[in-house]
Amino acid sequence: MVGCCWSLGANAYIVNASEYQWLEDNPEIRVAVVADRLPLETLDQAGSPQGYAVEALNQLAFQTRLKLKYTAYPNISEAILALQHGQVDMLSSASSHRRLSPFVNYTLTTWVQPLALFHPLENARIANMNQLAGKNVAAVAGSSAHEALLSKYPDVKVIVYANLLDALLSVVEQQSVALLAGSDEVAANLRAHPQWRLQQAFQLEHGMLHRFAIREDWQPLVDLMNRGILSFEADYSEQTYRRWQAYAANSAQAGQFSYWWLLGVLLLLSIAGSAFVLVRQHLKKANNKTLQLREQLDYWKNHDEVTSLPNRRHITRLLTNWLDDATPLSVLMFDFPRQNEVFENFGQRLGEVTKEAYAKRVQKSLRKHYPEAQLAYWYHHYFVVVVPNINKDKEVIEIAKQIVQSCRGWLRLEQLQLLTRCHVGYCSYHPRREALHSDTLLANTFTALNHAVKTGVSVCRYRPDLSQAGLVKLTLESKLRRAIGNNELDLFFQPQYCLKTNKVIGAEVLLRWFTDDGAISPDEFVPVAEETGLVLQLDKWVFQNAMRFMARFSSQLPEGFKLSVNFSAATVSLGHAEKIAINYAKQWQVNPQRICIEITESAMMEQPTEAKASIQRMRDAGFGIAIDDFGTGYSSMAYLKHLPVTVLKIDRAFVSGLEENLSDQHIVKAMVMIARSMKYQVLIEGIETQVQANLASVLGCEQAQGYFFARPQPEADFVKNYLPKTSTKENLRLVVN
Question: Where does the chain cross the membrane (predicted)?
C-alpha cells in the first residue's frame, strides 16, 4: 500500500507511505491545553477542552485519524515546561518563544490575534512603546507578548505573571503601568470584570500567530498538519474564530447579566444623545480592524512566513487559472540542498535567514532577466518558478541555467559562509498537444528534479519514462509488501564446504521471489525494499523462517553445521538486527552457536559506534559474525580489529581471475594472512572450477561455496540432498599440488 487518501468534504487529504507508517507507530498524541485562554482554549464545566485551537486541532485529527489525549495546565508557562520534559507531545496553542524554539517545530499559522497594550482608563493614552521605557509592563510568562517585550523592547521593564488574570490585576492595582497581551483574550476577561476600567491604547504591528508547537523529532506530524491546515476552506478559520469570540463574550455576560442590564439602563438614560455616534465610530473601527485582519490572514494563508514568497496554495491556484485559460507555460522546480545542514548545525533562526537570503538571490535574478516569472516557495527545501507564455525547450533551459547560476556561489551571513548549489527540473505545457491538471504538471516537474538530483545533472527535462520508472518502483513495492504479508517468498540454501575434508559444514540462506509472471531478482526488489523501509520486514521474514528450518531439522543436521543469515546494512546500523536474532532464536529454541550472522562492511561504516555495540551483543549471545563481501567495500583495518568477527568471506570478485591473475592471488593471500593473524576463519565465495578450489586451498582458505560445489536450492531439495548424510557429491575430489 503506497499511501492513503482520506476525504473530508471537497478537500482530499493525502497520507504517503512513510507518514502512514508513522501514524501506525504513534496512534495517540498527548496535547497540552491551558485552562483559561478564551477564545483560543479553555475547559468547560465538565473539564473538556474547548476553544478555537482545540476545534481546529480536532478537525485535523479527524482528517488524519489521530487519537488525541488532552491534559490541562493552569497557564502557558507550565504547558511549555511539560513539553520540555516530554510529558506532552504538542501544545494546542503556541507562541514563538525562545523557551520553545530550540526543541519544537511549528505548523503553519491558522489565525493571527492582535497584540495590544492596555492601561487604566483614567490615565493619558499611550501612543507608542517608546513612552514605556524604564516603566513596568505586565505580560504572561511564555506568551508572544512576553517574547516581543524581551526581543523588541529591551528598555521596558517586564513584570511576568503566570496567567492573564494576575497580569490584569497588576495593572488595576497600579503595580504595572500597562499590560501587553492578545486583544481578544483581554477583551474576554474585561467583559467578565466590568469594574476593571482599562482601555486599549494601540496594537503592535506583529500579532500573536496561532500555531501548533510539536516536539522536534515529529516532523511527519508537522507535515501532515500543515497539509491539513492548507486544506481548510478559505473562510473556515475566520468563521470558527469569530464563533469562539462570540462564545467568550456570551460566557462573560452570562454571569454578569443583572449588572450589565442595570448599567445599560443607566448609560442609556445618561448618554442617550451620544450613544449613536459612539456606536457608529466603534462599528467603523471594528469593521476596519476586521478588514485589516482578514487581509493579513489572507496574505499569510497565501505566503510563506519566512521568505514572504507565494506559497504552495497560492501558486497552485495561479497555475490552475492559467491552465483553465489554456495559457502555454513552463514550471521549473529547484532545491536548496544544504538547508537541512544549516538547520542542524546552526539552529532554526540562522537556517530561516539563510533560506530567505537564498530565495531573495534567485528572485532578484529572475526579476532582472525574466520579470514575468513567478517564484514561489513549495515546501521543505523546494522552490517553484512558473513562467507563462514560454514552453520552448531552448528558452526554458536558458531560464533553468539562470536559476542554477544565481544559486551557485558563496552565501555569507553572520558567522556562516556557505557554498550553495542547486538542481532544476522542468516541465512545459502545450495547450494544443495536451490537457494537464496543475497537480499532474507539478508532479512531473518534481519527478524531473528528483532525476536531476540522482544523476547529478544541473538541469533535467521531464520525460514520460521518468514517471514510468517511478510507477514500476511503486508497483514493485506494493507487490513486495503483499508478498511479505502473505508469505509468498522462498528461502534457498547454498551449501558451504570445508576445503580440507570436502564435507558440508553449513549453508547460506538466500532469499528468492517467484511470481506468476516469473522470478524477480533480488537485485530488483532489495533496493526498492531499502528505499521504502521494507528491508526491516524482509530481514525479519528471512531470519524467522531460517530459525523455523533449524528448529525443524536440528536433529538431522551434521555435527558442527552452521546456517549463515544475512542482515541489511540499515537493520544492523539501526540496532534492529540484534533484537531480531536474539528474539527469534529464543522463540524457536535454536542454539545461537549454530547461526552465523553475515554483515556487509557498509553496515558498520554508516553508524560505526552503534553497529559495533550491536554486533558485540550478538556475539556475546553466541552468534557467529561474518564480514560478507570482504575486500569490495571500505576494507578499513581500523574498524576490523575492534569487531568480534569470526569469519571473513572473500568476495567472488577476486575469484573470477584467480587462475590467471597473480594480483588476485596476492590479494587473496594477503586477506587470508590478515584473517589468520586475527584468528578469523576464511570462506571464499564464487568457486566455479576445480582449479579455483585448488588455488583457494593452497592460498590458505579453509571454507568455500560456489557453483562448483552446489547451486542455491529450495529447502526440500537441500534437505533431500544434504541432511541424510554429510555429503552426496561422491565424485568431488580436491587435488592440491
Answer: 259-279
Q: What is the Cα–Cα distance from 384 to 404, expressed in whole angstroms?
A: 13
CB of 697 closer than 8 Å to CB of 716: no
Could you give the CA distance from residue 417 to residue 357 in angstroms, rounded to a whole number? Answer: 12
Query: What burial class does residue 211 get, using C-beta atoms within 10 Å of its C-beta: 0-12 exposed, 13-18 middle, 19+ buried?
Result: buried
Provide the CB-side half-sphere exposure for 543 (13 A, CA). 29
The Cα 442–Cα 304 span in angstroms is 18
The CA-to-CA distance between both ends of the chain, in Å, stands at 58
Cβ-proximal residues to 198 (8 Å cutoff; 6+ apart), any chain? 118, 119, 120, 121, 168, 171, 172, 179, 186, 190
What is the predicted pLDDT for the residue at 588?
94
Q: Please give the single-letter amino acid code of residue 8.
A: L
Note every long-range contact of 270-279, with CB atoms under 8 Å and residues 24 or more positions apart, other chains counting: none
pLDDT digits (tens, 9 = 90+) for 284-342: 777 887 887 887 788 888 888 888 899 989 999 999 888 888 899 999 999 988 887 88
The three-point CA angle 445-449-450 to 5° equals: 115
pLDDT in tens, 675-686: 888 889 999 999
* CA 475 – CA 350 distance, rounded (Å): 41
Pairwise CA distance, residues 34 & 41, whole Å: 6
CA distances from 396 to 106, 359, 371, 461, 615 (A): 36, 19, 14, 9, 52
**C-alpha to C-alpha distances, 32 to 75, 104, 585, nearest whole angstrom:** 10, 14, 43
Would you list the DSSP string of 352-389? HHHHHHHHHHHHHHHHHH-TT-EEEEEETTEEEEEEET
Query: Which long-range contacts link 125-128 to residues 24+ away (Cβ below 8 Å)?
Result: 125/199, 125/201, 126/178, 126/201, 126/202, 127/201, 127/202, 128/202
Cα dihedral 527, 531, 537, 543, rounded to 10, equals 40
In whole angstroms, give the CA distance from residue 105 to residue 17: 22
Cα–Cα distance, 682 to 703 (Å, whole number): 6
The single residue listed with the C-alpha cell 471594528 is: 286
Helix, coil or strand: residue 299: helix
Q: Locate 690 and state its grid cell.
A: 576445480
Q: How open is the CA angle 254-256-259, to the nearest 5 degrees?
A: 140
Side-chain-facing half-sphere of 610: CA atoms under 13 Å: 13
Cell of 170: 497588576
Angle value at C-alpha 693, between 630 and 669, nearest 5 degrees: 45
Pairing of strands 208-215, 382-388: unpaired
The answer for 86, left when phi > 0, alpha when psi is -120 to 50, beta otherwise, is left
Residue spans of alpha helices (H) in 408-534? 438-455, 464-485, 522-532
Residue 596: CB atoms within 10 A of its CB come to: 23
Q: What is the DSSP string of 703-714?
A: EE-STTT---EE
How many angstroms separate the Cα of 165 from the Cα of each of 75, 146, 160, 185, 186?
Answer: 10, 15, 12, 10, 9
Residue with cell 495546565: 73
Task: Cell numbers for 498, please give them.
Answer: 570445508
Helix (H, G, I), strand (E, B) or coil at 180: strand
192 neighbors 83 (Cβ within 8 angstroms): no
606/601 Cα distance (integer angstroms): 9
Residue 409 Ramachandran class (φ > 0 left, ψ -120 to 50 alpha, else beta): left
Rounded Cα distance between 520 and 406, Å, is 45
Print burial letters for 528-550: b (CB count within 10 Å at least 16), e (below 16).
bbbebebbbbbbbbbbebbbbbb
Q: What is the pLDDT of residue 47?
A: 85
The answer, yes or no, to whether residue 8 has pLDDT greater than 70, is: no
pLDDT band at 277 (very low <50, low <70, confident <90, very high): confident
